[in-house]
Amino acid sequence: MKGHLRTFIALFFLVGLNACSLQDHVVPKKIKLSTPAFEYTDDFKMRFKVQADSLGDLPVTEYGILHLSFFRAENDTDYTPRIEHGARMQFDQPIVMGVNNFVYTGNAFQGKYFFFYRAYALLSDGSVAYGDIKSFTFER
User: Fold this and answer.
1) Least packed by Cβ within 10 Å: which of 1, 67, 69, 101?
2) Can you tell me the distance from the alpha carbon of 121 to that of 140, in angstroms, rounded to the nearest whole number?
3) How far apart are the C-alpha atoms of 87 and 3, rounded to whole Å?
4) How far apart are CA 91 and CA 102, in angstroms?
């Protein structure tokens, strides 16, 4: 009986290891983003941009700009916008390769001294892709 149990266990591990082969697992490519500088439009609104340098294999469920804005004497020194730390400016059109635009008409920056912003994309597997961080200081 012990010999049969050993044979069963050996076969179980061989079959199990083959089923978990790394050759069968393909890691999907993530979208690659960059963050172009924003522009003021003719009517003094802000045009933010997200540039998709490659779209990757995973569907994008949401994308846009994350931003952190500050008054002159604020004590917060974490200037890295990310999903859990920053405000979202979600774009309303499906993402396409190249530059995607969104005209911001809100007042999140009113009275602020400077802000940091970056592109983001939430992917269907729950992960997040980020673009590079930019900053802007308002002239007073």
Assistant:
1) 1
2) 33
3) 64
4) 6
Query: What secondary structure letter does DSSP report for 23?
Result: G
Which of 82, 92, 85, 79 has its CA nearest to residue 120? 82
Q: Angle 98-103-108 (CA atoms, 0-180°, nearest 5)?
A: 125
Place of tokens 């960059």: 34
Q: What does DSSP say about strands 39-40 and 60-70: parallel, antiparallel, or unpaired?
A: unpaired
What is the rounded CA–CA span in Å between residue 67 and residue 135? 9
**pLDDT tens, residue by residue, 41-55:** 877 799 999 999 999
- List, in order, residues 6 or more apart from 101 with CB less than 8 Å away: 47, 48, 49
pTM for the predicted model, two decimal places? 0.78
